[in-house]
């Protein structure tokens, strides 16, 4: 790596991570360990991510947050989920150990790479970051990667390479992405979301504009999304567009679909045909995601044939239209979609895949999002053959909006409101038919219901 070495690492030998099992924490710990820092970490519960760190045998991991865990650390990194009363955080403060939040460390780590690529957007960050990582790794560029979901190609959500390239997600929530100064950034789309933090769409666009202005080299922006285009008018970086429209630098054309399962298109750059892309992940949104990944990889020097081959091998990311299993002709799938735009593209893709029925089980995520986007949620949940809505997952909020899932159900023709997972599972077991797709959707723990349904279907044999 030949990036900027921050003073924050001066005289630092050991770094301790509070909440090291988190999807955003684990990759940072692995990268810094590979650079020669002594890393330790703690978490309250075991997880697949934590098990993988432990299996490396290079990072000391403790289950439980105890004051003695920070003893001897020169720097402490904590995740956003850690509150001020955490015993390790308090002990670090008492011992005069510097403590920084995860997003701050992400910014510091990215600046250690000459070519840092940050993928932003209201929707599609994880899939696009994963696609780009798979292209670059598969093409021999050996980047490091920090991904918000598990990528089967690398067996996890992080990859430690030996080159000067780092690919990561850049999340807009609470302006986390403003900690970054990427060489290259991607802006997939700009939409109304996170209204518990942002005032309105203009406020969101203001933050994306600032993010764009922090980019030093090149910005890849969705040329079909006017909100996204509005955010790059002030940047000094090179602006490169991608999309379906003829004015885009990188363009998808001659698009064909195979029953909604495979998306095939020709990729053009400046009017010249580069290659044909055939995806095995469905939906128009994945064409956009792949376009962004392909354009960025091509800019970095990837061969067009390698781009095509690696995108064709891309089978998706954990919780992004993930097929969990099939039993007696009933397919169980799960998706992270928790915003109307995400629901719409996923449900439209599902409806085009030839299932007898699509049964969507949606867990609303936060009171603010549900209340402020209620009519949009109601509109897109008309798409499946049947919508089932569970109780709202509060996450970080209290119900000051006086909103309930029943308010959403009342607006959806034929929808069912079933609050508890066990009751939803009972309904599905009794009513699912051969040829059905049972699709759980939401940003919370709704995936647990999908696994519960699949397990019960198998037990019913």
What can you see in these coordinates?
- This protein is of the alpha/beta class and 461 residues long.
- It has three domains: 90 residues, Rossmann fold; 201 residues, UDP-N-acetylmuramoyl-L-alanine:D-glutamate ligase; 138 residues, Protein-Tyrosine Phosphatase, Chain A.
- It contains 15 helices and 21 strands.
- The strands form three sheets. A ten-stranded mixed β-sheet has the order 8-7-9-6-10-11-12-13-14-15, sandwiched between helices.
- A hairpin with a 2-residue loop joins strand 16 and strand 17.
- Helix 10 runs parallel beside helix 12.
- It is globular, with a radius of gyration of 22 Å.
Fill in the keyword field for this structure.
461 residues, 3 domains, 21 strands, 32% helix, ten-stranded mixed β-sheet, alpha/beta, six-stranded mixed β-sheet
């Amino acid at each position: 790596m030949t990036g900027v070495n921050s003073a924050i690492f001066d005289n630092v030998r050991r770094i301790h991570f509070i909440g090291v099992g988190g999807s955003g924490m684990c990759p940072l710990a692995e990268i810094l360990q590979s650079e020669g820092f002594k890393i330790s970490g703690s978490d309250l519960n075991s997880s697949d991510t934590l098990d993988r760190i432990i299996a490396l045998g290079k990072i000391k991991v403790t289950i439980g947050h105890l004051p003695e865990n920070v003893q001897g650390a020169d720097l402490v990194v904590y995740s956003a989920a850690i509150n001020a009363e955490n015993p390790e955080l308090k002990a670090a403060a008492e011992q005069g150990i510097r403590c920084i939040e995860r997003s701050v460390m992400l910014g510091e780590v990215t600046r250690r790479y000459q070519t840092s690529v940050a993928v932003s957007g209201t929707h599609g960050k994880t899939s696009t970051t994963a696609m780009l990582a798979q292209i670059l790794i598969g093409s021999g560029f050996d980047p490091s990667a920090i991904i918000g979901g598990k990528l089967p190609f690398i067996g996890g959500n992080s990859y430690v390479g030996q080159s000067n390239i780092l690919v990561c997600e850049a999340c807009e929530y609470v302006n986390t992405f403003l900690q970054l100064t990427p060489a290259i950034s991607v802006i997939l789309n700009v939409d109304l979301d996170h209204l518990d933090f942002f005032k309105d769409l203009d406020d969101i666009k203001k933050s994306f504009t600032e993010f764009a202005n922090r980019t030093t080299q090149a910005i890849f922006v969705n040329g079909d999304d006017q909100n996204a285009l509005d955010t790059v008018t002030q940047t000094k970086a090179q602006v490169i567009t991608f999309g379906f429209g003829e004015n885009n630098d990188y363009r998808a054309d001659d698009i064909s679909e195979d029953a909604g399962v495979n998306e095939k298109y020709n990729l053009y750059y400046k009017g010249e045909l580069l290659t044909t892309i055939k995806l095995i992940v469905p939906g128009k949104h994945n064409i956009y995601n792949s376009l962004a990944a392909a354009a960025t990889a091509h800019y970095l020097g990837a061969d067009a044939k390698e781009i095509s081959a690696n995108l064709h091998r891309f089978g998706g990311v954990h919780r992004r239209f993930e097929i969990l299993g099939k039993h007696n002709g009933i397919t169980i799938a799960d998706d992270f979609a928790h915003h109307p735009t995400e629901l719409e593209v996923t449900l439209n893709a599902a409806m085009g895949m030839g299932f007898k029925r699509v049964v969507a089980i949606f867990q609303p995520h936060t009171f603010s999002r549900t209340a402020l986007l209620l009519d949009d949620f109601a509109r897109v949940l008309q798409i499946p053959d049947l919508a089932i809505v569970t109780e709202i997952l509060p996450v970080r909020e209290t119900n000051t909006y006086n909103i309930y899932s029943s308010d959403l159900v009342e607006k959806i023709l034929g929808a069912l409101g079933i609050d508890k997972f066990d009751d939803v599972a009972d309904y599905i077991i009794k009513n699912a038919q051969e040829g059905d797709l049972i699709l759980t959707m939401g940003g919370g723990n709704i995936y647990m219901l999908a696994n519960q349904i699949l397990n019960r279907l198998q037990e019913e044999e």
